[in-house]
Fold:
Amino acid sequence: MSGNESIQNFLLPPKTLYLLNNKTKTYFSGSLQANTGTIFKSSLGLLNSAHCTELRYATTQLDRFCYPNPKEDEYFGT
Structure:
């Protein structure tokens, strides 16, 4: 299965996903397939929990996505 197929399968059912930029600690809301979106600044210490996973086929800066909101310790990729 290619990376694009993996993304398509994971996005069903639809969810609001955020791509994290580990260098600037911002997150993106938009299309994972197109790797585009709107950048939102976010303060650290959000109370909402989030599930994060690595996107091994994404760029080095955009290597994780979280939903619904990233927590402070989830801003940093591995």
Observations:
- The chain has one domain: 3-74.
